[in-house]
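Researcher: Following up on the earlier apo prediction. This time include the ligand. It's flavin-adenine dinucleotide, with the SMILES given after the sequence.
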Amino acid sequence: MSQGFDMIVIGAGIAGATVAAGLGATHKVALVEAEEQAGYHTTGRSAAIWVRNYGPADVRVLTGLSREFFLNPPADIGTDRLAVGRAIVYLAPPAQTGALDGLISQGLGIEEISLAQVKAMVPALIEGYAVRAGIETDGFDMDVAALHQFYLRRARAAGGQLMLRNRAGRIARKNSAWEVETSTGAILCAPIVVNAAGAWADEVAQIAGLAPIGLVPCRRTAAIIDPAPYQVEHWPMVQSAAHDWYIRTEARTRLMVTPCDETPMYPHDVQPDELDVATGIDRMQKALNIPVRRVERAWAGLRTFSPDRSLAFGWDNAAPGFFWCAGQGGYGIQTAPAAGALVAAMVKGEDPGPATGIIAAIDPMRFRGRV
Ligand SMILES: Cc1cc2nc3c(=O)[nH]c(=O)nc-3n(C[C@H](O)[C@H](O)[C@H](O)COP(=O)(O)OP(=O)(O)OC[C@H]3O[C@@H](n4cnc5c(N)ncnc54)[C@H](O)[C@@H]3O)c2cc1C
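Model: Understood. Below is the ligand-bound prediction.
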């Protein structure tokens, strides 16, 4: 016996959760997730930072449109600290002054500051590492777990069914609808399938008999260290202008360090590589005088990019009712509120308002035939 829905969303990370929440009021939604926990993969492994001047133009539009949600969330968001302000400081060694100039000229609100000002904020700065610096002041830390849980709660409150431990293994068109069979043997049926499978999105399309669009999951590594003797709660996020390492405060007293690695991978439960951890610490220690006695923990996650690094949201033109919500790269959390609203409007055929201008740029069919 198959269960009938208006829509089956595959993947319950932040992308699938926002779509299910955004469409729950008008559609009977099944939200199908392979793992025991909805945030097990990339959503639970992010750096949790909102940075206005990050990513391609379409991403920046959604990042900007999401800002208001983070600053003034609904009363039932489940935390009183969804956004906690944190500036971003860009350090330019001699070879990276061009990168800093690019950030300042192309970014919104990035200003040059003196190295003395950086030193006042980050006393660990090593003299001689940077020759110039810039600052972006309107960034903030995001409470990703609260955000994700809020959307899952909203989806369920609207009648949506969250099906954990159900990997979609067969996806086929049958009698003008999609039939999805999961790893528990459940058979679901709906006129619309939303592919929000993150690193697996190309794989999910292929299971449905559709061509991939060339998504590339890339590993990024993060390590947590004790920055003693420094008190880092109010430090800005600090990164090189060329984005080859950054640090940000974790849980008020620790630092997260990354070498900004982007190693192409197949989709899987990715683990940190010791060499990447060591590289991140080494690059940071050229800039900051922080002794690292031990790495407290490390993790890695897959940031999945489309061939032009922009988003891939839209209908597949080779099969009716198959909607792509993929390619969120390193920006899937900070864009989530506006992305969810945009996808809901696109699926319903409604006016997406201020995001209308990016729809052509994020059409996944721009890659069709290129892969
Ligand atoms: C180290 C790191 C730092 C980051 N920092 C930031 C940041 O500071 N700010 C920011 O905005 N973003 C950041 N990101 C990126 C952000 O985390 C991602 O863009 C976002 O989480 C992607 O969400 P998703 O729902 O598309 O993917 P996922 O969270 O991976 O969800 C996809 C889900 O689909 C499920 N799935 C796959 N195949 C199937 C199937 N066949 N059947 C059922 N379920 C399936 C998977 O199990 C998975 O749970 C970072 C990422 C990493 C790794």
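Model: The chain has a mean pLDDT of 97.
Researcher: Noted. I'll compare it with the apo version next.
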